[in-house]
Amino acid sequence: MDDRMTGLGWVGVGRMGHALVSRLLSAGHDVAVYNRTREKALDLVELGATLVDTVADLADRDIVFTMVADSTDVEAVVEALLSRPHVQPGLIVDSTTISPAAGESIRRRAAARGTAMLAAPVSGNPKVAASGRLTIVTSGPIEAWTQARPYLEPLCRKVTYVGDGERARLVKVCHNLMLGVVAQCMAEISVLAEQGGVSRADLWEFMNDSVMGSVFTRYKTPAYVNLDFRPTFTPSLLLKDFHLGFEAARASGVPMPVVAAAEQAVQLLEGMKGNDVDFAALIELVAAGAGVELVPADVEIDDGLAPLESVVG
Questions:
Q1: pLDDT at residue 150, as a whole number
Q2: What distance lies between CA 249 and its chain's CA centroid?
Q3: Whole-model pTM?
Q4: Which helix (H) or strand (E) holds 239?
Q5: Distance between CA 51 and CA 114 in Å, rounded?
Q6: Residue 5 — pLDDT band, cuts 50, 70, 90?
Q7: pLDDT in tens, 32-90
Q8: N or C: which end of the chain has fewer CB within 10 A?
Q9: To the nearest 10°, the Cα dihedral for 288, 292, 298, 301?
């Protein structure tokens, strides 16, 4: 029996990657990290991570996780991981939101060189990850899923395997289409209720405890009530996912009129507000359309993201 600790690698420690690597380190795993901006990963060394100088330095790791911006970055990272003669990871787990077609192309190239790939997009933001409420959807060879599962489960509340191939990429695209639609709906009904004399805080106190409430509506409530638009997910990133969704819909012949309307609202948001705001700023566009000037409520709102460990304890 091989008792050697599995060596993990991680490429991309932005806000989400940083939160997830921290969870792996807290669980006692051996993690080596590469980040384009080295300074952003230095504090992970204090938690026990090994910091490397190049992506190729992670080629001797058993499993390498990648969380980067787009398919071009995924391609570059995978090529670098497979660039060393006779040394390459056995498995690459990619959490980047890219199209199923791009994922399949990269997967085939990796498989041809002896490295399996598992698609593993995540649902949530860094605060959700820190609270333990992140969810992950995966797809790829069943053997890859079995190998990666013990290292995915410490990252999240639930990880779901949906089969072979790039099915997880499609699920994540569907997820983000729903995110955009719900965000626009939250904006519209918030302004409608306020115009009828109901405060946004009271509206969402009721909604979040009703059958219509969700983890998402609860943790976005402070943004809509207090007009806190510090970015967790920008309009351009959401638009990228809308475009991936429409690409899949055209290929499958699926009409999406509601999604199309939400996409236009997000396009307008990007044009008017740029990308230094959170997508929750959609509420300001709805208010402007109604001739209403919103003001922050400046009230304390429970976002429902207390760490699960403290909730159950």
A1: 96
A2: 21
A3: 0.92
A4: helix 235-252
A5: 26
A6: confident
A7: 999 999 999 999 999 999 999 999 999 999 999 999 999 999 999 999 999 999 999 99
A8: N
A9: -70
Rg of the chain (C-alpha set)? 21
Measured distance CA(267)–CA(173) in Å, rounded? 17
Question: What is the homologous superfamily of the domain 7-165 according to CATH?
Answer: NAD(P)-binding Rossmann-like Domain (3.40.50.720)
Paired strand residues for 30: 7
Cα distance between residue 105 and residue 100, in whole Å: 9
Report the pLDDT value the prediction gives residue 311, as an integer from 0 to 100.
40
pLDDT at 276 over 70: yes
C-alpha 61 chain-centroid distance: 24
194 CB neighbour count, 10 Å cutoff: 19
In sequence order, which residues have a C-beta less than 8 Å from that of residue 55 and are 6 or more positions away?
A: 11, 34, 76, 77, 80, 81
Q: Are strands 63-66 and 91-94 parallel, antiparallel or unpaired?
A: parallel
To the question of domain 169-312 being in CATH 3.30.40.10, the answer is no
- Parallel, antiparallel, or unpaired for β 122-123 and 135-138? antiparallel
Which candidate, 141, 152, 100, places its Cα nearest to that of 117?
141
- CATH 1.10.1040.10 placement within the chain: 169-312
pLDDT value, residue 24:
96
Q: In what order do the strands lie in the sheet with 135-138?
A: 122-123, 135-138, 158-161
Residues in the chain: 313
The pLDDT value recorded for residue 222 is 98
User: What is the residue type of 280?
Assistant: A
pLDDT at 1: 34
Task: Determine the pLDDT at residue 3.
Answer: 52
Instruction: Tell me which residue has tokens 């396009």.
Output: 267
Decide if 114 contacts 88 (C-beta within 8 A).
yes
pLDDT-above-70 percentage for the chain: 97
